[in-house]
Amino acid sequence: MVGSVTQTTEPAARDDSPWTGHEAPRPRRVRRIHRAWIVAAVAFVTIIGGAAFNALPGLLIDPLHEDFGWSRGEIGLAVSIDMALYGLTAPFAAALMDRFGIRRVVVVALSSVAAGALASVWMTAAWQLMIYWGLLVGLGTGAMAMSFSATVTNRWFVARRGLVTGILTAAGASGQLVFLPLCAWIVDRHGWQPASVTVALAALAVVPFVMLLMRDHPADVGLAPYGGEYVAKPAPASGAARRTVRVLFDSARTGPFWLLAGSFAICGASTNGLIRTHFVPSAHDHHMPITAAASLLAVIGIFDIIGTVFSGWLTDRYDARRLLAVYYSLRGISLLFLPVLMQATVEPPMVFFIVFYGLDWVATVPPTLALCREQYGEDSAIVFGWVLASHQVGAALVAFLGGVARDHFGSYDVVWYAAGALCAMAALMALMIRRVKGLPADAVMR
Question: Which of 12, 39, 99, 338 is the right S-S partner for 240, CB 3.0 to 4.6 Å?
């Protein structure tokens, strides 16, 4: 059984044992799941609860435009603030988890998401959208970003790190799979306000699981990390903000950081900023029903889970640079075909695109995190947080500029083509990342 430890208990020896002269019973073997897998499961559910809000913005662009008369650029700006703060919060969140513990940071983050989603129900002006969606939700979701996954993985696992990274990354897609069709149905039948309330309740529902089952470090329960040796829990790290900034300045002096950050910015631009934000309104421009377009995004979530977990498995075995180059190249090619696939009905070529794009959606995360770990060691979680910040800055720019392009050109075609070209650049950047000295070319990333 994967992820289990075996405990052996032997019966006490007695002279008058009834088994004298006969074969004694064999020691009973008790197989238990290692606590690391329980912590990973709680992290998975937490990311799903936090990701519920990410399913919402693309569904609400048209309803908010119709209800308040706000331009798509204004709405896109609020989404871009959310995405930028999501990214900029991530590296500080990793350091705060070192200082205050995972549980405390995540509970505060979930509460922030719920507060922002609930407050948006009563908004009447665009600036309130930017405060509630942009600030509160951006800070909350940023604290549960991929640096949270990196922290859990680094503390609780030595073996199977690539696989666990893939599974936790897929949690965001799982949240999309669960909430996109539900929120689309709610928006279509009851309006956008009940959908926002649903997201708030989803975030709050996760809090008890975090409080009861999450632990900050294996030493808290007297265990070694899965696949490793026992390590004493380090003292709380003071100066979280100072350490986060110091790591940024140190890593920014190295070439691999900028290649990782640049390629991951393009990753964010071509996924969260582009497809997640603008796919539904673009499909609606071609008279596709909003529920059908949202269902297609949910299908992306299904194959995203498969692709990301498989990418984690591949990252444990193959060169992460080459994997990234392949992922970005295939993504760019698929985006070039998207404008001709948009129709009022869902045709087989569009289904093929959705499946193909879903497999590649965040398959880039496990190899990117592996390269951060290879290049930056103990600071890799914080470095990855900054790389993730670039991912979200790229997403934020395209979320805003995509809306502006739609207002100006009357369609999203130019945005799809530009994103395809950017993905080709990302593939080249991945191949340019230098290998750490002493690491063989066929090294297995673990």
Answer: 99
Q: Which of 326, 292, 333 is closest to 311 using CA atoms?
A: 326
Tokens coding 110 = 């979930």
Please calculate the CA angle 368-352-287 and round it to the nearest 5 degrees: 110
- Report angle CA 236, 239, 245 to the nearest 5 degrees: 125
Angle at which helices 35-51 and 146-156 cross, to 10° = 180
Calpha distance 88→381 (Å, rounded): 14
pLDDT one digit per residue (tens) for the chain, 446 residues? 444 444 433 444 444 444 444 444 454 444 577 888 888 888 888 887 766 666 676 677 778 888 888 887 788 788 778 877 877 777 777 778 878 888 888 888 888 888 888 888 888 888 888 888 788 888 888 777 666 887 888 888 888 877 787 788 777 666 766 677 788 788 888 888 898 888 888 888 888 888 888 888 888 888 888 887 887 777 776 676 787 888 889 999 998 999 999 999 999 899 878 887 888 888 888 888 878 887 887 788 778 778 888 888 888 888 999 999 999 999 999 899 888 888 888 888 898 998 888 888 778 988 998 899 888 887 887 788 789 888 888 888 888 888 888 888 888 888 899 999 999 999 999 999 987 654 544 443 33
Give CA–CA dist 84/374, Å, rounded: 26
Cα–Cα distance measured from residue 53 to residue 114, given in angstroms and rounded to the nearest whole number:
9
- Would you state the structure tokens that stand for residue 267, as one six-digit string? 């990753």
Model's pTM, two decimal places? Answer: 0.66
The CA–CA distances, whole Å, from 230 to 50, 144, 163, 219, 226 equal 31, 27, 21, 7, 9
Q: What are phi and psi of 30, to 5 degrees?
A: -110, 120
Residue 147 CA to residue 116 CA, distance in Å, equals 22
Of the candidates 15, 12, 38, the residue with the CA atom closest to the CA atom of residue 25:
12
The fold of 32-215+237-431 is Growth Hormone; Chain: A; (1.20.1250)
The 10 Å Cβ neighbour count of residue 223 is 18
Structural contact between residues 146 and 299, judged by C-beta atoms closer than 8 angstroms: no
Q: How far is CA 52 from the centre of its chain?
A: 12
Q: Residue 221 is encoded by which pair of tokens?
A: 């329960």
Angle subtended by helix axes 161-190 and 57-68, to nearest 10? 30
